[in-house]
Every structure is written in C-alpha cells, then in structure tokens.
Amino acid sequence: MACTYECGVKPALMNKTVGLLAFVVGCAALPAAAQPTAPGPQDCVALRNLQLPGVVISEVTAEWIPAGPLPASFGMPPSTMLPAFCVLRGTLDRRTGVDRQQYGIGFALALPAVWNGRFLFQGGSGFNGVVRAPIGLGAAGDMPALARGFAVASTDSGHRSDVPFDTAFLRDQQATLDFAYRAIERVTAVAKAILARHYGQPVSRSYYSGCSTGGREAMQAAQRYPMEFDGIIAGAPAMRTNYAVLGTDWVSVQLNQFAPRNAQGQPVTRDALSSMQKQAVIDGLRNACDANDGVRDGLVFNTSSCKFDPKTLVCGSANSGAGCLTAAQAAALESAFAGPRTSAGRQLYSPFPFDTGIADAQQDIPGLLNGGLNLSPASTTNIEAAARWADSDGPSTLTNTTGWTNMTTFVNRGGKMIFFHGVSDPTFSALDTVDYYNRLAGANGGADAVQRWSRLFLVPGMGHCGGGSLATDSFDLLTALVNWVEQDVPPDAVIATRNGEPRLTRPLCAYPRYAHYLAPGDPNDAASFACRAP
Q1: I need a labelling partner for 8 at 20 to 30 A (CA). Which of 336, 360, 439, 526 fits?
Q2: Which residues, in sequence order, are bridge partners of residue 120?
C-alpha cells in the first residue's frame, strides 16, 4: 500500500492498522499541492498597507513569526511547533452601534511561508468576542492545519468581549447578524482576496472546521454559503442553543429534587448523587452495555444498542449499600436523560444518551451527573413557559441550523461534510446531531445517498468537543476530509487515540456502524477492531 506523507504525517500509526483496517483514512495522507514562491518577512510587513477595492480594513497589524514554538501571546501550549508564517490582524466594517458601542468584524489570517494552496476557516466558540490564534487545531490530531501549510483564518464574529457567554452585543442588530452568519461570508471573501494577492495565485481548496459554536458556524457555511467551501467539519454543533439550554436545565431540575442546599438555600446539583451513587450508575451502565461492542473496556461503542434502565439500581434485595438509588432518584434520572416534554407530549429537546463520561468531574464542563454546564441563570421549573421562551427567542431563530436540510448546491459542486460529537457531551446532546443527520439523509435521498458526501462520527466517553477520562478524543478528521474532497476517498473510519495510560487506539466508524472487537487481538489496538452495523 503506497502512501505519500506530507508535513510529518506519521507512517508508524499506519503500520499498526494495515490489514484489518486497511480502509481507515489515516493511511491516505494529504495529497501534495502546488506550492508558490514563499513570501518572507518583508512581504509580511507590506501587508500593513493592504488595500482591497470596496473593503474597509482598520487596525491592521502584520507580524512575522519565525519557525519554532509559538510565542506566549498566542495562548497556545509552548510545545506547539510551527513553520514560519505571517499573521495579519485587522477589523472589517468598523462602526458605532447601539449605546455608542464600537463594533466590527475582527479577524486574523495566518499566511505560511510555504503555502499548500489550501484555506481553512477556524470556527469560534461560545458567543465568540475574541479573535483566537489562527492555527487550525480542531479535529486535526497532533498536527494543526497551519503546520501542514494551510492558510488559516479566525474571527470574533463582529464584537469584542473577553467575558464568557457575554450576550450584550445582541442588542445591536448588525452585531447579531454578524455573529449568526455574516462574519463567515465577510472574512472568507476578504481572506481569499488577501491570499490571492499575497501569493500571486488563488486558493485551490477551501475548508471550514469548528466545534460547538464553531460547529454551528460550519453548518451555516454549508447551508448559507454552499459555493465557498469544498469541505466542512462540524463538531458538537450548537444548532439550537435555546432548546439545548432547556435540555440541560431539565436535567438540573430533576437532580435538584433531592440535591442538598447551600447556605443561601440553593440546590447544589453536583451533590444530588453521592460519589458512590454516581459510580453505581456508571457500573450499571457498563454491565448493561459495555460488552455490546465485544470487549469490556469502559467505553460503549455500540451506542445505538445500549439500553440502560436506572431502576435496576433501586435499593432492594439485589442492590444494597451506599451506592444504590432510591426509587425517586432512579425515576428522576430516567426523566432527566429522556429530555423535556410539554404537558401535551411535545419533545422540546433530544434525550441525552447514558454514557461512561457522564460522571466526569471536569471543572469547565462537568458531566451531566454533576449538573453539567447550565447556561441559564435559573433552572426551568415551568416547562410550558420555557417552551414559549424557546419558540420566541429572536436571536436563536438566526443561529438555529437544525431545520435546514436542503444541501443540493453544496452537494452538486462536490462538497463534503463531516460531523462529530462526543456521546458524553453535557451541553449539546449527541442524539440531537444524530437526529439532524438522519433528517439530512431523509431529505437527500436516504442513508446511502447522503453517505456519498456526509459522514457522522460519534466519540464514546468524550465530553463537549473533547475531554473525558476514558475517551479516545484525539483524531485527525482534517486529513480524512482533504482525502475525501481531493482524492474521492470516503472516510469509513478514522483512528482515534487516548493519550493516557494505557495508551489506546480505536477506529471511529461512520454512523451508524460502530467499532467491534475481534478476539483475540490486543484490545488497546485499533487493528483489533472492525466496523459493524448495530
């Protein structure tokens, strides 16, 4: 099997998987792209005087970064090694808006010294407000897009704030539109024009990759701008944040029925279940589902076949001790994960799957059994009122991407799209993305037809966009996407790695298939697994 490796893609990984997993995309490396003459520091400095017809760019800076570790100002791990590049920063459409506040679309564009002709738009997170370092780390394994020779752009999507979840900008109409989708179009057009001028040739291929808000933006890129991008990666997309908030609130409401109170009388959701009870839930889940993928390893890869009932843990003859649940606790858990419904039975948000990462105690986004990440100031107790709020929330109608499934233009021009979602995500349910993908298939000729241009990968044990004590949360979907777009090699599976001890690799199989263990192989090696239908 002949493979051409570009920018340090590691053949060692492939030597482990050739054979049973010869179809895994990890072997098909990025195809070589034409490389123009490499601009240097002087060309970088010249970008400070950049002028484009009909485009107003203010606050322009250009900085040449020599090859080596990133400067501390980039906020990245110092071990991140990159080739020499120029980073251009600026603001588009600077204006004065509501309350005399200054608005504009801040952006950064990384232009590598040796460019492979490709452009990657790096998606944002939260409510944006910050221009993050344009490196292209997301879903790229251990090699950022910039290190591979991509030019990479990022944006604050039209407003500035370093306060997490700051929504003050929503008072301004244009800032809201920029955040919802317009910044994608503006930054893409300007970045492509700059690249063509700087390198003396146009972009050969364009890609978008993002998770959470960036995943929602990726969906907007495919839905609203089908002519702009050849390949798109949408991770854990924030498709309908208003309803997702109801979903996480609903979980808190159920847990708070038996949560202890603090000095102010507020429920401490994290302590609704004791540590022993949380472990009992995880153990019960493993007993019910772990072996369904052929091996007991703490990861449930056969997600669709997992049927876990919390009532099996109710204290009684079969269960005793500090880890068993009361009947009320079991009923609350069942209701919490089933998702909120109105009194008329309308499902407001998708259920959350039971998975082995739901008890992980991450500080930033804890697992659902710890209360998860509650984005609203108070948990919802009046579900009917909450449903009315979700239906009428104006800004969310602009950012909601779950209803649009007409991708004919994107598909007909050869576009490819990859979704991924952590099964233990406590913020946006993986089942909501599964539901969208199934509806996408239904609206575009069925499952076989949609798999010609779109694939979904579920990551057991993984939280929101990454993390999880057991999860294989390091994977390179960018190589898979480029191979699909440029060589027509569809990603049936990609190799994912858990970097803890013991180190473990698994194939992530394209939905609805899952990784099934083939005895007597090494259960820590992806080569011992094959993709099967549930």
Answers
A1: 526
A2: 152, 207
Is there a contact between 298 and 291 (Cβ–Cβ < 8 Å)?
A: no
- Catalytic residues, by residue number, are 212, 425, 464
Q: Using CA atoms, how far apart are residues 460 and 472, in angstroms rounded to an integer?
A: 8
Burial 75-96 (b: 16+ CB within 10 A, else e): ebeeebebbbbbbbbbbbbeee
- In one-letter notation, the amino acid at residue 21 is L
pLDDT of 269-312, one tens digit each? Answer: 999 999 999 999 999 999 999 999 999 999 999 999 999 999 99
Distance CA 28, CA 9 (A): 10
Q: In the prediction, which pLDDT does 25 show? A: 35
Query: Do residues 211 and 125 make contact, with C-beta atoms less than 8 angstroms apart?
Result: yes
Tell me which DSSP letter residue 371 carries.
Answer: T
**β strands within 52-178, DSSP E:** 57-65, 68-69, 81-82, 85-96, 102-112, 118-122, 151-155
Spatial CA neighbour of 278 closest among 361, 401, 185: 361
CA distance 198 to 72: 27
Q: Which residue has the higher pLDDT, 242 or 191?
A: 191
Confidence of residue 476 (pLDDT cuts 50, 70, 90): very high
